Hints:
alpha/beta, homodimer, 8 strands, eight-stranded mixed beta sheet, globular, about 50% helix
Amino acid sequence: xxxxxxxxxxxxxxGWGTTLAIHLARNGTSxxxxxxxEDEVATLQAARAHGRRLPGVxxxxxxxxxxxxxxxxxDLVCFAxxxxxxxxxxxxxxxxxxxxxxxxxxxxxxxxxxxxRMSEVLxxxxxxxxxxxxxxxxxxxxxxxxxxxxxxxxxxxxSVDALRSAFHSTSLRVYTSDxxxxxxxxxxxxxxxxxxxxxxxxxxxxxxAKAAILTRSLAEMGRxxxxxxxxxxxxxxxxxxxxxxxxxxxPLSRNRRLGELVGRGASVEAALAEIxxxxxxxxxxxxxxxxxxxxxxxxxIAAALDRVLYGGITPLEAIRLLMExxxxxxx
Amino acid sequence: xxxxxxxxxxxxxxGWGTTLAIHLARNGTSxxxxxxxEDEVATLQAARAHGRRLPGVxxxxxxxxxxxxxxxxxDLVCFAxxxxxxxxxxxxxxxxxxxxxxxxxxxxxxxxxxxxRMSEVLxxxxxxxxxxxxxxxxxxxxxxxxxxxxxxxxxxxxSVDALRSAFHSTSLRVYTSDxxxxxxxxxxxxxxxxxxxxxxxxxxxxxxAKAAILTRSLAEMGRxxxxxxxxxxxxxxxxxxxxxxxxxxxPLSRNRRLGELVGRGASVEAALAEIxxxxxxxxxxxxxxxxxxxxxxxxxIAAALDRVLYGGITPLEAIRLLMExxxxxxx
Lengths: 331, 331
């Protein structure tokens, strides 16, 4: 018999966090979704749904909603908060997390000031627990709707079979990996390129240009990943190219939508306000460029996006910069 | 000074052949598009456009249309006919092709009876000429419209700089490669998976599932490619993943459209009749499976598509087969 987790706590009430809590409860594990405060608990309990993030998706009966103290008896704690608040959330929840609990990150980002991956942030805030990460082509509304999909769980020190049992279902198929850095960086970096893809869509660049940009983006992701100790092959898998293309083509992707709005002339602030939820790529691009500088890795596509979002050049100028820069041989 | 081709002959009057002839003429090389017979020459000359294949795209002044004998003075001969007619076309044109001419294949397919790549078919029909192949994410209507894009020219024995000069423009950027087999197999095999992608679209599988299927498809393409002597890295480039995603997401792709029609219940014959032009993947899937069998390579996604197209199972049964088959670890 495979060991199974008895109780999972998921924090927080983002679209992805709420989706994972619903998925875990549907899949037969006792699950609590950790809300910010009693007011949010009351709102979500009254509706038995998260109307703003996941309209039309009812909470299954096995899903509780509660505040942080309800995490105490969880043997698996899943973090799905925005990357910029992960450290604060983890430190705030730490007194309620068992010393024996496994911790899994479903947050996709890189800490800007330090270049740390999300699992490294969690390892510092919640030391001595087994750690894992979950990433892959997982548009939350599709997972919540029960559409078929797949994801990757990477870990080197947690019980991978128990993690797989908790998340694996007939609709969401779980692959496993021991390349924590690669799986995590694939999920974080792809948001940068989904913004660029959305910009290209808004400018009517066409599918030939978009495919070319994403092909070069994949190479760029892999270069930084390998410099950070990841396995190059991970970027050819679900957590790399799989997540990159899902996010870059889906109308449900917030990062792609951010790019579309910026491509039509909106400022990054105005675009983020219109989206109304975090688009991680807008932060990740700066974190990735800082990290790349320390590793001596060139990221021309990310650098061009950074100049569009924060440096005052237009999307058209950025695309021209990239086109002029291309070398003769593919390698 | 780089050597330049003085005159290019492009055969035949497919959407892609016509597009390449227009592109080459726009790019400043004297170009003749080889039509089937005097009737087709007259029709195309009268319209100075190919209304059925490329509506609204006028032939540039430098583009001639003529029958086979006009190829005699060409120092570059480009083949863009359907794969099933390539050998017959090449043998028919051979008496008109100079012994000094460079031959380039823009046909994407595998010969079903023999497993030969298109450049191998051309090498046999037109021996002792320098050979090259052109492939990449190149939806013909986008190239004809002058939208930005990129392509790969692979050769081991032709003057790559002269080829690059003929095809490279501000809108179509040409990369070079020496991996002829990889570039050619990428272009041929991706059509198989674009059909599967179209089926998934028709069934409303969602972007998570489509991305997962394409990720596994890329691995499958790479396995057969490497078994045939190609470089694995080629499948991570424009002629591999780039072409795969362009073809699998674009509404302009005939192979994707074939999959959509089959996914909605049409027979392959009915679907091809509705499309009205070759969808190479419908032939390539059988050629690829035969080739894979000789190399001992498993291609479960191609095999599932073959059973849908020719073996009487439904698209839904095929998707289920694939989902059940997936292994635990990504590698």
